[in-house]
């Protein structure tokens, strides 16, 4: 079974047993989470999308806080002495999809 689920404003294509990194979620390692905002499901020939979807994606948190790569935003105006440097590392949560029900 395949599903497209919306997590923290982003869409992810998931199957049971998949492991993926999503934007940071509240919870600890080992906790189970449910995502009810499912946009699309496909089970063989049966395809359901839109408001008719009644599925729920269940997942388990593998690692609660993982930092992504460092991103640097550097702005400069030549001959003016203006330089501005900002950087950040986005926080992710590693989850494993256990079931699509």
Q: What do you see in this structure?
A:
The protein is mostly beta strands. It has one domain. The protein contains no helices and eight strands. It has a four-stranded antiparallel sheet with strand order 2-1-5-6, with no helix packed on it. The model has no long low-confidence stretch (mean pLDDT 96).
List the helices and strands and how they pair.
Elements lengths: L1 E6 L2 E6 L3 E5 L8 E4 L2 E6 L2 E4 L7 E21 L4 E19 L1
Antiparallel strand pairs: 1-2, 1-5, 3-8, 4-7, 5-6, 7-8
Distance between the termini: 9 Å
The total beta strand count reads 8
Proportion of residues in helical segments: under 10%
Q: What is the arithmetic mean of pLDDT? A: 96
Which blocks of ≥5 consecutive residues have pLDDT under 50? none
Element order: H for helix, E for strand: EEEEEEEE
Instruction: Report the radius of gyration as a whole number of Å.
Output: 19 Å
Structural class: mainly beta
Q: Characterize the biggest β-sheet.
A: 4 strands, antiparallel
Query: Please, how many helices?
Result: 0
Give the percentage of residues in beta strands.
Answer: over 45%
Descriptive keywords:
101 residues, mainly beta, four-stranded antiparallel beta sheet, 8 strands, 0% helix
In short:
This protein is mainly beta.
